Amino acid sequence: MTPPSPHSAPSDRPAAGVLADRLGRPLTDLRISVTDRCNFRCTYCMPKEVFDKDHPYLPHAAMLSFEEITRLARLFARQGVRKIRLTGGEPLLRRGLERLVASLAALRTREGRPLDLGLTTNGSLLAQKAAALRDAGLGRVTVSLDALDDAVFRRMNDVDFPVAKVLAGIEAAQAAGFARIKVNMVVKRGTNAQEILPMARHFRGTGVVLRFIEYMDVGATNGWRMDEVLPSSEVLSLLSQAHPLVPLEASAPGETAQRWAYADGAGEVGVISSVTHAFCGACSRARLSTDGRLFLCLFAHDGHDFRALLRDEPEAAGDARIQARLAQIWQARADRYSELRALGAAPPRNAARRIEMSYIGG
Ligand code: SAM
Ligand code: SF4
Ligand code: SF4
User: How far apart are CA 162 and CA 159, in angstroms?
Assistant: First the structure.
């Protein structure tokens, strides 16, 4: 039996003076990709056949420096951003990432508070880096993990990476003092659906929040098919038969996950229904690629070049112009791809030009 639906997110219509797009959505959340490289080849994200040794990754000079990222992040915060998530590619491959974390941790929101600073990682290097990241001021960690069964996990990451090392990374993050660590599991029918209950059993009662994500039609290389999407409703039905669930309020406006508590008090679990239950109406996220292009939607074809602006415009005088450009771009935003797809009216997309998840991050 599927449990009742949780309460929807509270309204977050922007107050006067807050930057809003054409659908009234504020800009509060920025995801920054710090590298387009990864040490995994997850079949749904960076299939080996495409991301091989001949793949044209960005040269170092094309990537935003830590100073450039920090400058932009400061300007975004001035425009209302409160939450920044570092992603990739695999962000822990970027050398010295803790230096960037320390710079971002020193920034403040318009209200004068520290940013909500998070990182999404495949966990492969977390055991070595968790303590340094925490010391640098990182607030939250989300680890992507698609299976507990070692053989299934090795098949999905496609580089024969053992699950034990990712689990050790999660433990290191707990030991380093990160609270409310999240684990994201992309569920593909026919690939890892049998791992749903073992994953739930493993993380129940540990304080780690497991979230099940529907496999999305992002990018042009993963050969996405609707019949491989396992709807969240089925995940919830399976889960609630084994462990009764009660709905929880959304913890923040625009939150992508529907949250549930285990009725026996063993913690929290969530589902992210990107395909079957579009949440564009509350989407307050922008994404910055490793080379400084700003994307207003995961499914956008084109990004707005902020690297050129950063490099052409010297600090003080340029900052005002960059902020004005950002305001102009956000105010023109009307993207809502997933909603349109649900209505059967998604705009025709040139598959060859779709942006890859590994380039702009999840
Ligand atoms: N490498 C890091 C990681 O895996 O956590 C960060 C970047 S990765 C692109 C960010 C998230 O996107 C991961 O949780 C991954 O599982 C998710 N992702 C990638 N391709 C996806 C797809 N086609 N559908 C749903 N989620 C996807
Ligand atoms: Fe790498 Fe993350 Fe994509 Fe997997 S999901 S290939 S770990 S970027
Ligand atoms: Fe936001 Fe685009 Fe995803 Fe809709 S489809 S929730 S607008 S990123």
Answer: 9
Question: In angstroms, what is the span from residue 325 Cα to ligand 2's centroid?
Answer: 31
- Hey, which bits of 75-176 come out as E strands? 83-87, 116-121, 140-144
Average pLDDT for residues 200-206, to the nearest whole number? 97
Q: Output the DSSP codes for 263-283.
A: TTS--EEEEE-TTTS--GGG-
Q: Tell me the per-residue pLDDT of 121-170, one tens digit each, with 9 for 90 and over.
A: 999 999 999 999 999 999 999 999 999 999 999 999 999 999 999 999 99
The fold adopted by the segment(s) 28-360 is TIM Barrel (3.20.20)
Q: How far is the CA of 300 from the centre of ligand 3 (A)?
A: 9
Enumerate the domain spans of the chain. 28-360
Closest by CA position to 105, among listed 118, 94, 96, 92: 118
Q: Which atom of ligand 3 is nearest to the CA of 339?
A: 4
Outline where DSSP puts E strands in 34-139: 83-87, 116-121
Q: Six-digit token pair at 337?
A: 């791809």
* pLDDT of 2 above 60: no
| 31: DSSP letter | E
Q: CA neighbours within 13 Å on the CB side: how many for 10?
A: 8
Strand boundaries in the chain, DSSP class E: 29-33, 83-87, 116-121, 140-144, 182-187, 209-214, 245-247, 258-262, 268-272, 285-288, 293-295, 304-305
Q: How confident is the model at residue 350 (pLDDT cuts 50, 70, 90)?
A: low
Closest protein CA for atom 10 of ligand 1? 362
Strand bridging mode 245-247 / 83-87: unpaired
Is any atom of ligand 2 closer than 6 Å to the C-beta of 126?
no
335 pocket-lining for ligand 3 (C-beta < 6 Å): yes
Task: Give the residue among 183, 285, 201, 192 at the shortest CA–CA distance from 242.
Answer: 201
Distance 90 CA to ligand 2 centre (A): 6
Does the beta carbon of 90 sit less than 6 angstroms from any atom of ligand 3? no
Specify the DSSP element, H or E, that contains 233. Answer: helix 232-242
